[in-house]
Design goal:
Blueprint lengths: L4 E10 L6 E11 L4 E5 L6 H8 L7 E6 L2 E2 L5 H11 E5 L10 H5 L1 H6 L8 H9 L15 H13 L5 E5 L7 H18 L3 E4 L3 H4 L4 E6 L2 E7 L6 H14 L9
Parallel strand pairs: 3-8, 3-9, 6-7, 7-8
Antiparallel strand pairs: 1-2, 1-4, 4-5, 9-10
Helix pairs in contact: 6-7
Length: 256
């Protein structure tokens, strides 16, 4: 199976000489279709820089990032905009909804910006609204929604164009434990039922336990990797995650 995403010898350095910071220092990995990959690491470990490189927000110092076999470092203009808008879906910690747009309008914003056939009555829109249980809040503005509702609207927006990869940056960071678990259950369902490919940066070991694989990053390098074994339940995987976090200098879900 060809990977959706291929990262090869990726480096991102800031500064020079004694002031040089190696945010990413030679990372190599692949993401296959339908995978749910988590990335964990202490603050400053390089995980957010990695996510920003994949999103083409910042350019790496060296190395390559290929999306479906295409080197994104060679993209510019409309092709780069299409990559960011159509191939990637984004789910952020602070929702990033537009305050003066309704939930429905926020979801359809990528369609307006990047084109597509989806609308408020399309099969995909209706399916996402039903699955994410947001049908009753589509006409509300973000100020009228709870944090969990905002994040489910944001999830629908990230998925509306059926992107090749969904990038999640601390998606449970602004949610209480109940809403965090509900959101992760929905993302897992989309991964398993729709084959959505998800790459998630998280500090939360509970959220990470929903993933099928986790990469732990330290000092810009891959420190360790865990895969959920066939038949392994979520609690056992969670316990294994905590053991790795303890090696990184902690052990609780809030240490990273």
């Amino acid at each position: 199976m060809d990977p959706v995403l291929r990262i090869d010898s990726l480096k991102k350095y800031y500064g020079r000489g004694e002031n040089e910071t190696r945010a990413i220092d030679g990372i190599t990995f692949q993401v296959v279709p339908g995978e749910f990959l988590g990335i964990m690491g202490a603050s400053g470990s390089g995980k957010s820089t990695l996510l920003n490189c994949i999103a083409a927000v910042i350019r790496p110092t060296s190395g390559t990032i290929e999306m479906k076999g295409q080197d994104i470092g060679r993209l510019s203009g409309k092709k780069l905009a299409d990559y960011r808008g159509k191939e990637m879906g984004y789910l952020f910690q602070n929702f990033e909804l537009i305050d003066n747009l309704t939930g429905k309008e926020n979801i359809l914003l990528p369609v307006s910006l990047h084109g597509g056939k989806e609308n408020a009555g399309s099969e995909r829109f209706d399916k996402l609204a039903s699955y994410l249980e947001i049908e009753d809040i589509l006409d509300k503005f973000p100020s009228q929604m709870s944090g969990g509702e905002k994040q489910r609207i944001a999830a629908a927006r990230a998925l509306i164009l059926n992107p090749g990869l969904i990038l999640c940056d601390e998606p449970t960071g602004a949610l209480d434990s109940k809403n965090a678990k509900a959101l992760m259950s929905k993302l897992l369902g989309l991964n398993q039922e729709e084959g959505a490919t998800i790459l998630m940066v998280t500090h939360d070991s509970n959220a990470a336990s929903f993933c099928s694989r986790i990469m732990f990053i330290q000092d810009g390098k891959i420190f360790h990797e865990l895969r959920k074994e066939d038949g392994e339940d979520q609690k056992d995987f969670y316990d294994r995650i905590l053991k790795v976090l303890a090696q990184l200098g902690g052990g609780s879900s809030n240490v990273l």
